[in-house]
Fold Tryptophan synthase beta chain-like PALP domain-containing protein.
Amino acid sequence: MFGHRPNRRRIDPSSYIVRLSNLIGVLVSTFRHLDSHQLEKGKRRRRRSKNLSRSYTFVRIRGLKMEVNKEKYAADLSSIEAARARISSFIHKTPVMTSESLDAISGRKLFFKCECFQKGGAFKFRGACNAIFSLDDQQAAKGVVTHSRFLPFILHMFSFPCYLIGLDLTTFFKISGNHAAALALAAKLRGIPAYVVIPKNAPQCKVRNVVRYGGQVIWSESTMQSREETATKVLQETGAALIHPFNDGRIISGQGTISLELLEQSPQIDTIIVPISGGGLISGVALAAKSINPAIRILAAEPKGANDAAQSKAVGRIVTLTETNTVADGLRAFLGELTWPVVRDLVDDIITVDDTEIIDAMRLCYEILKVAVEPSGAIGLAAVLSDSFRNNPAWKDCNQIGIILSGGNVDLQVLWNSFRK
Ligand SMILES: Cc1ncc(COP(=O)(O)O)c(C=O)c1O
């Protein structure tokens, strides 16, 4: 019933020895016959990798020492130092404030970098100034153009119930026009035109700031398509340079000057907490700070209702959201392709907070620091006071914390009216 099993072939060990020696022979002769061209190519490759390794640096990310390629970022310490030299006579060196009461509440030593006192009321002036003063005379003469965001539908919905109880969020929390206003102001200093495309339904306070600084308002319909078409038309007609609010090396370098100042003013800082939206601010801050002190921690603060950066870090690629919902109107943009690599490699973590926490932090800034901060500007304090930060063992050693109060552009009309009643 069982078939005949063929005999196993006997293996002669000497045949293996013969095969092995043949193989060695082939390898030796191949190596001998490598022509000089191939050897030269190999040497070049080794030389290139040696040069590349020089452009790498070590930084500490999530407690680990990691190698990152300095060459792949849109800015570096030298471009940030060059930005400082370019803009220092135009910008304010903003103060660093401390408060024993807030230290007691947070359980850490806090250093508030008051960019709400920057010209134009926000850090944005640094980047805008650097971009505008980097233009050559011929390009500058044609002016600059930008278009700004407006209140999304979802925030209008959120605002309506508040309106019914007498609080109008659309006017209380000024719409983020910080980049547009900063650009208009920097252009005025250089004596060149700034064209700002603004939708017809934009709140007056935003328009007022741009006009106050001499910007030329170009009206568009409220749709994104209309805004972009209008901006393109202005570009074609004027030849002006389009200055992006964050996805631009000159903007990132300008924002990075904050770290140069902060770490001179308070060198003991071991952690910096930075609001994040498009990522221009945190990219500049992280690139400069980690070059000066590779051990420093950079934490981003982001609203839960616009947590695209936290999601991007979690999945390792840029994530965009279909809608955002937060009072922090300056923090609703998504990361760009120039800011994402810096956020991916140099930002240690992203702390998300809800709007109640942001508003509570804003109130503490008014009450204790006596500083007018907008919601986007107060989010760093909200992050430091949040349970997710306090209870995370990874951050228990963050004892000397720099917080960027990034802006103070709030329309206080509603508050003022309530005093008059
Ligand atoms: C006050 C304020 N803080 C922070 C940010 C976030 O900056 P970035 O878009 O560079 O991340 C903005 C952006 O408009 C802002 O207006």
Q: What stands out?
A: Confidence is low (pLDDT under 50) at residues 1-9, 28-69, 150-175.
